[in-house]
Recover the amino acids of this structure.
């Protein structure tokens, strides 16, 4: 039996579908209302998704380079160290606790590795993100890093699930 609650079908659809927020390269966003945060174009870049399961506060940052020390241009979200720090601080400001925050990371491919050391930007980005999260005591509970393919991400903040879409692999849910 269907009960009419006074709302239109489009209002009901809006309630069912969470807001979608696109996070661009060297950008971040934090949500407290169940929005879906997305980013695309992750090659050597890393997407860092943070979620506090108790409060539902979630955030996503799309970092490009390992360290702000190498080339500080004033945009903290651009770098793995300062971008991860910024995201943690913004989650805390929204009510999350580092004791509860869980991290999931994806990206860090070496699609075009021109470095002489063999340690390209993708590997260095992943190492820096891990180091920064460790400094905060935040565990990484899921990751899809490395390889030679691009990725797009969808953080479902209601559940903390991170859906990773890869060009040459099946979608995975972290």
């Amino acid at each position: 039996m269907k009960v009419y609650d006074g709302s239109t079908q489009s209002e009901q659809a809006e309630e069912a579908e969470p807001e979608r927020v696109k996070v661009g390269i060297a950008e971040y966003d934090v949500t407290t209302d169940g929005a879906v945060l997305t980013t695309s174009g992750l090659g050597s870049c890393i997407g860092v998704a943070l979620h506090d399961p108790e409060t539902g506060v979630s955030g996503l940052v799309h970092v490009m380079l390992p360290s702000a020390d190498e080339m500080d241009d004033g945009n903290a979200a651009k770098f793995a160290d300062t971008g991860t720090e910024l995201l943690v601080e913004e989650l805390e400001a929204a009510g999350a606790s580092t004791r509860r925050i869980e991290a999931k990371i994806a990206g860090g491919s070496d699609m075009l590795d021109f470095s002489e050391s063999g340690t390209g930007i993708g590997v260095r980005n992943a190492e820096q993100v891990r180091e920064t999260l460790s400094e905060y005591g935040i565990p990484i509970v899921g990751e899809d890093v490395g390889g030679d393919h691009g990725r797009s991400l969808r953080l479902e903040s209601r559940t903390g699930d991170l859906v990773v879409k890869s060009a040459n692999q099946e979608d995975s849910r972290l």
In short: The first strand starts at residue 20 and ends at 22. Helices lie at 9-16, 80-93, 121-136.
